[in-house]
Write the structure tokens for this entry.
Amino acid sequence: MIIEIVIGVASFMSGGTLLYVFRHRSFIKRSAQVLRDAEAEGEVIKKDKILQAKEKFLQLKSEHEKAANEKNNRLNQFENKLKQREATLNQRQSDQAKKQKELDTRATELDTLKATFEQQTLTYQSKQEELEKLHLQQVEKLEAIAGMSGEDAKNQLIESMKEEAKAQAITNISEIVEEAKLNAQKEARRIVMQTIQRVGTETAIENAVTVFHIDSDEIKGRIIGREGRNIRALEAATGIEIIVDDTPEAIVLSGFDPVRREIARLALHQLVTDGRIHPARIEEVVQKVEKQVEEEILEVGKRTTIDLGIHGMHTELIRLVGKMKYRSSYGQNLLQHSREVANLCAIMASELGLNSKLAKRAGLLHDIGKVSDEQPELPHAILGMKLAEKYKEKPEICNAIGSHHDEVEMTTLLAPIVQVCDAISGARPGARREVAEAYVKRLKDLEALAQSYPGVLKTYAVQAGRELRVIVGSEKLSDKEAENLSYDIARRIQTEMTYPGQVKITVIRETRAVSFAK
């Protein structure tokens, strides 16, 4: 149609214009074809878009339905939970109602019982009063018949029961003690003897003075110095009294602190060897020797712990162990005593099936309080326990240290082992020296303690204080009372006195008949 209109219009045009139209006729056909193709392609695109829109709509619809279903499910679940809670609440309400009903029933029953009880109480009180009246009448009749008041009869009965119970208790105690001795004596003797035999021992050493030997007496004058300035400087630097007398080729160093005596001895040795002796040099040498002794103390402590197989000990405790080398107790070197106690504890603990390593550690540290730098007014066992606690030792070791002289209560089996081994090490022959005055005083105190009891005639401390013999009057004490007396004396000695080993108390009661032939 469009082409015909174009041809008609072209017939009215001039020849040149008509020619132009016909030239572009092919172009117009092509344009129509392109337009038709575009329309067809548009239809295809439209269909595609419609399909995509339908697919998108279906997808959105599916997602919406899914979300709606999920929401409905959640709502259904929530509704079910609400129903369950409602059912639970209804059940609880029903149970509560039942309990309330039961409580009301019980309250009614209690009221009934209370009324019954009050009535019975009144009846009981009236009967009790009647019984008391009858009892008083009977007591008055008995007192009139016996000629003794009820209070006197009660006291007499109580005293007789006390005496009977006391005698029975003493008998039972004796039987228990004897049975325990029979069962335990053999095994205890074996363990102690094996322990003592397996440990090497040493004898007592010097305690208060150190003798410094010199080559000639000429050195004494150099040590004294002009107007005594050298010896005064040495004494001020070391804190030790230096005694220079007529003793040939010897100078005596006197002091209570063995570490200071050792420092003074080494300083004198270096000064005499070097030959330069004057106050400035003395102070320099003493300071150097103090450092050397501190290093030696730490080295001795380390060697001791290594020899005994003890590991993980705090450095300060190791230093105190090394310091024991220069300390003695009753002439017994403290380090050797502690090593001996450690070995005894390990052997005895292994015999008893206990931890031998802990026992050895506790035995080594049991006297650590004797070499403390602080030296407060505390027993050495308590001080040693506090030091062990300070440096993170185990509680059983701390208790064994603190209780080996009974200052604190024993809480583990390790504590009595340390106490026994300490007594074994100190009580063996040759272990310690005891001052004569202290020895005599201890024996006198033993005899005086036993003499303080009524009925005791004579007391004798024999076997170096290991046995106390008590002679009592036969007319004053019976056999049971004599047995009770030995038990009381033993307990009192154990709690009031300090002594090595054990003390045997023997009470002797004898009857003598004397007559004369004339």
Q: What stands out?
A: The chain is about 70% helix and 5% strand. The radius of gyration is 54 Å.
